[in-house]
Structure formats: structure tokens, C-alpha cells
UniProtKB/TrEMBL annotation:
Keywords: DNA-binding, Transcription, Transcription regulation. SMART domains: HTH_ARAC. InterPro entries: AraC-type_N, Homeodomain-like_sf, HTH_AraC, HTH_AraC-typ_CS. This is AraC family transcriptional regulator.
């Protein structure tokens, strides 16, 4: 599940009170394998920060992240030889985590500056910077089995009223209001060996990461954005061509023209999004078929039943039993 959802749940707040139920269910079922559009990712943190009154919530979320939450990328990092290789592989495969910025390593004398570069025209997100740098500090300590590693943190936003969490996470000097967000540490850290490295396993997981990266890079940005809009709005039923075009800031005619050029009619994209969401939800045995139909935006279970059979050749109940090993 997304880190903001996990932390609100840990604080005793039902994530469904803050986020659309379908998205919570999708993220729970996907277990970290579904890309979240950047705007939605930031919005989820903003809602959690407002609900909990914790401006340093993204920092705490990043510090609590485990490599297993990164899916195949986490396995790639765990099987690198050194922390220097970890930095290189993270830069190479960061796209697997979404459009959340690019890490860059710069050597300045005997120090390393690990920058976090914001790739968008909008102002850089303080929430994403907190999350990414805290996760990097945590991962480096865990991978090297060196809890004593200390990092100076330069952050592009103003200092919060209470900086104690930042002191605990980074352990070194804190500088707020800087031109860029980055960590600074001794260059020899990059030479530290990764305690969990396994050369044979590394080749397997890197091949998988390369395959996933090719898939992501091969999909046009318009399709990625459209799928994100449709996935977020399935439960509330706002998935018509006109509503999707408005959400993307374009006209229905322009959207249809672009999709036509890609050979992807709007209905086929909507069906793909619904099928992906349906498969994730069907793997959750606690949900009835009626609930799943509602979460997918259908008013009748029979409509969902007929659509799923058209997509897969199976009834949703039979597909679920097969996936869950129940005949």
C-alpha cells in the first residue's frame, strides 16, 4: 500500500476516510506493483499531513520504508556489490517507482553529494524530497548493515517548527532553504559492501527490472495519464470520454484523435483499466462480487459479470476461485 495510506492506518485513521475506497483497495491488492501518478502521490501525502497534523510525515514514511516495498527494484538494490553500485542502479531504474525525480551523485573532494532532481516544471515537492532522502538514508544503513552512518541533509524548503525527526533520520548537519535537496556524506560510504549481495540472484532480478522498464518506457505518456485518471474515478463513475478529457485538460475531439493515432479507442483503454482493477479486487477474498461491481462503477452486478466474461472468457467468480486455489 502507498506509504501515506499505511501511516494513516497505523495512526488509527481508516485510509478510506481520506482516499477513494477503490484506490485504497487497488493499492492494497497491488502490493506496491502499481504505479501511482505523481499528482495523486503528492495529494495522498497532503491529505495525510492535514489529517494527522504532521508536516514531517513524508520523512517518517520514507524512514519506515523497507526495500521489499519497492518490488523488483528492491531486490536489485539488495543484490548490488557496494553502496556505489546501489546508487547507480537506483538512478538507472528509478522510473519503476514513477515520475518522482532523479537521483544524481556528485563527488566534491572526499565528500559525495547525493542530489534529488525534480524533473517537472512545477515547483519541487517538499513531501517527495523528504520521503526520497529519508528512504535513501535508511536503505544505505540497512544494506551496508551500518546503523552508524550519518548524513548531512540540505533541504530546499523552510525548516519546520520541530526538526527532531530530521535529526534522527539523517544524524548529521541540517540545512533548510537550500537551492536543492540532497544528502552529503563521506565518499568512502560508496565503497561499503552490501551485506545481502547474491551474484546469481542479481542477474535474475536485474533481467526482470529491465523488462519492466522497457514496458514503462514503451507506453506513451498520454495512455499512462489517461489510465491514471480512469483508475481514480472508477468508483464514482466519472469515466466518460468527456469527463476524462476534462480531467486531462483537453477536448473530447483532441483526446479521440490522439487515441486514434495510437490505435487505442477510448473504450478499449477503459476496459483495460477496469479489467486490471477487477483482477486486483477479485484477489481480495473479503470483497463480495456486488462490492467489486460497485467499486468498478457498475450499478448492477450482472453488468460487471457480463463485462468480465467478455474480457476473459470466464465468470468473475470462477476466475477468483482459480486464482485463490479453490478449484
Amino acid at each position: 500500500m502507498h506509504a501515506a495510506c499505511s501511516i494513516t492506518c497505523a495512526r488509527g485513521i481508516d485510509p478510506v476516510a481520506l482516499y477513494p475506497e477503490l484506490r485504497v483497495r487497488q493499492l492494497e491488492a497491488a502490493r506496491g506493483h502499481e504505479e501511482i501518478p505523481l499528482a495523486e502521490w503528492i495529494d495522498m501525502f497532503d491529505r495525510a499531513i492535514a489529517a494527522l497534523g504532521e508536516p514531517d510525515l513524508p520523512l517518517k514514511a520514507g524512514a519506515s520504508l523497507h526495500l521489499r516495498h519497492l518490488g523488483v527494484l528492491g531486490h536489485v538494490l539488495m543484490n548490488c556489490a557496494t553502496l556505489g553500485e546501489v546508487a547507480a542502479q537506483l538512478a538507472r531504474y528509478i522510473r519503476l517507482l514513477g515520475q518522482i525525480g532523479q537521483p544524481r551523485v556528485e563527488r566534491v573532494g572526499d565528500r559525495v553529494h547525493l542530489l534529488w532532481i525534480w524533473p517537472h516544471a512545477t515547483p519541487p515537492s517538499g513531501a517527495v524530497a523528504q520521503f526520497m532522502l529519508a528512504a535513501r538514508a535508511t536503505f544505505m544503513r540497512w544494506l551496508a548493515d551500518r546503523p552508524d552512518l550519518r548524513f548531512d541533509a540540505h533541504l530546499h524548503f523552510a525548516a519546520p517548527p520541530d526538526t527532531r525527526a530530521f535529526e534522527r533520520v539523517f544524524g548529521g548537519e541540517l540545512r533548510f532553504g537550500q537551492p536543492h535537496s540532497k544528502m552529503v556524506f563521506p565518499a568512502y560510504y560508496l565503497e561499503l559492501p552490501v551485506a545481502s549481495a547474491d551474484e546469481d540472484l542479481r542477474q535474475q532480478v536485474e533481467a526482470r527490472a529491465q523488462s519492466l522498464l522497457r514496458i514503462l518506457e514503451g507506453e506513451p505518456p498520454l495512455l499512462t495519464e489517461l489510465k491514471g485518471v480512469l483508475a481514480r474515478n472508477l468508483a464514482n463513475g466519472r469515466v466518460s470520454l468527456a469527463e476524462a478529457a476534462a480531467a486531462l485538460g483537453t477536448s473530447t475531439r483532441t483526446l479521440q484523435r490522439h487515441l486514434g493515432a495510437l490505435g487505442r479507442p477510448f473504450q478499449s483503454v477503459l476496459d483495460e483499466v477496469r479489467l486490471h482493477a477487477a483482477e486486483n479486487l477479485l484477489r481480495d477474498a473479503s470483497l463480495s462480487l456486488t462490492q467489486i461491481a460497485f467499486l468498478l462503477g457498475y450499478t448492477e452486478q450482472s453488468t460487471f459479470h457480463n463485462a468480465f466474461r467478455r474480457w476473459t472468457g470466464q465468470a468473475p467468480g470462477a476466475w477468483r476461485r482459480q486464482q485463490l486455489g479453490r478449484g
